[in-house]
Amino acid sequence: QVQLVESGGGLVQAGGSLRLSCAASRGTISSYAMGWFRQAPGMEREFVGGISRNGGNCNYADSVKGRFSISRDNAKNTVYLQMNSLKPEDTAVYYCAAMFRYSDSLLPGRDGYNYWGQGTQVTVSS
Q: How far is CA 66 from CA 2, 84, 88, 121, in A?
């Protein structure tokens, strides 16, 4: 059982930066590839990006590529989402999720996650 807790959300002006954290308060994330998702009001949940178990591989949605980056520190049981050049359309609740993987290098997919966090709000003002 893994319990995930996101933090770091808040209000930021367009063009600014935020770093979200996703920490495992229970269990360990080292066996899991990790994904970040977001959901804006009235919209479907959107895959933002993912990172493999060992942090060697990442993938990103086209909407955030070049602006967002994902990293992880398995010793700290934490995954990060660095968000730069934020836009008002990035406003959403951001969630992290864990997907069990047998291989260190496999990226997570867009569904089939084992555990989810409760989300953290990110608001970007224009």
A: 30, 9, 17, 22
Question: Cα(23)–Cα(73) distance, rounded to whole angstroms?
Answer: 10
- Asked whether the CA dihedral 95, 101, 107, 113 is positive or negative, the reply is negative
Residue 57 and residue 67: Cα distance in Å, rounded?
17
Nearest to 26 by CA among 55, 54, 5: 5
Q: Is 90 exceeded by the pLDDT of residue 105? A: no
- Other C-beta atoms closer than 10 Å to the C-beta of 22 total 27
pLDDT at 107: 87
Q: Indicate the DSSP class of residue 50.
A: E
CB 24 within 8 A of CB 32: no
Q: What is the pLDDT of residue 104?
A: 86
pLDDT for residue 92: 98
